[in-house]
Amino acid sequence: MKWQGRGGSSNIEDRRGMRMGLPVGGGIGGIVLLLLISALTGTNPIDLINSGGPAGTGTSGPATGAPAGDPQTEFVSFVLGDLEQTWGEVFAAQGARYTPPVLVLFTDATQSACGVGQSAMGPFYCPADQKVYLDLSFFAELDQRFGAPGDFAQAYVVAHEVGHHIQTITGLSEKVQSARRGLSEGEANALSVRQELQADCYAGVWGYYAAQRDVLEPGDADEGMAAAAAIGDDRLQRQSQGRVAPESFTHGSSEQRMTWLRRGMQSGQMQDCDTFR
């Protein structure tokens, strides 16, 4: 990606090194706490992170932008800024105004309005405070554990989480949460898959506009597809438990995730990302 020297977003809140709710390095305790909250409330622990669970009590600093001279955070700042430009243009074309999210950088654990966020759970978006949470160590994991290296693979991850922000400000997330109530686990999971695939497609829409601005380089699209395939439910289940259980999918198969990311990148049209039809 051609991102150096192109500026970035100031909507970044840097909490790295701060002890917020959990000691830095105390990941196991945080997971235990999350599971305890899940048991007490009867809530899926993933929903506590992704769908506005119990409110946390962590402090929140102002958005300050990426620290100067830090290439990795400068890259994230660029991606966030480019996403703001894309969605600002898309919303303006529809006669609406886009309100961007804040991206929170943290180490190991932090508090969000959706509860405790752990780096072990990967990047997440909290609709209750409209913030994206990211431990930059996930990018190394994406490369080394999942076999999906490259800057566009990393950008896809951020764009996917911003896709959930789009769903929140358009009211889609609230509709999905309402529709999930009273459904069986399998039916609720199926709705979650559709929501996640739409976020993949929205990430692709950003990729389409980034290509128009000459941000992408040859091979970037392949990096994105590799990342989408690497974090498909079927691949992750096969790696972790040796078998695939489609009824328990919450994000979609590798093929589904690649399909919807590709659709967004080829179309560039938000209306082509209707995974609920």
Q: State the end-to-end distance.
A: 33 Å
User: Spans with pLDDT under 50 lasting ≥5 residues?
Assistant: 21-30, 48-60
The tally of strands reads 6
- The total of helices stands at 10
Based on Cα principal axes, name the global outline.
Answer: globular
Largest sheet: 4 strands, mixed
Spatial sequence of strands, sheet with the most strands? 1-2-6-5
Mean pLDDT over the full residue set? 86
| Gyration radius, in Å | 18 Å
Strand content: 5-15%
Percent range of helical residues: 40-55%
Alpha-beta classification:
alpha/beta
Taken together, the total number of domains comes to: 1
Order of helices and strands: EHHHEEEEEHHHHHHH
Provide keyphrases for this structure.
alpha/beta, single chain, 51% helix
Written description of the protein model:
This protein has 277 residues and is of the alpha/beta class. Helices cover 51% and strands 8% of the residues. It has helices spanning 27-41, 45-50, 71-93, 137-144, 151-169, 172-180, 185-212, 220-230, 233-241, 254-267, and strands at residues 12-14, 102-105, 109-112, 115-118, 124-126, 131-134. The strands form 2 sheets. It has a 4-stranded mixed beta sheet, covered by helices on one side. The two termini are 33 Å apart. Residues 21-30 and 48-60 have low confidence and may be disordered.
Short description:
The protein is 51% helix and 8% strand. It has 277 residues and is of the alpha/beta class. Strand 5 and strand 6 (131-134) form a beta hairpin.
Topology record:
Elements: E1 12-14, H1 27-41, H2 45-50, H3 71-93, E2 102-105, E3 109-112, E4 115-118, E5 124-126, E6 131-134, H4 137-144, H5 151-169, H6 172-180, H7 185-212, H8 220-230, H9 233-241, H10 254-267
Parallel strand pairs: 1-2, 2-6
Antiparallel strand pairs: 3-4, 5-6
Helix pairs in contact: 3-5, 5-7, 5-8, 6-7, 7-10, 8-10
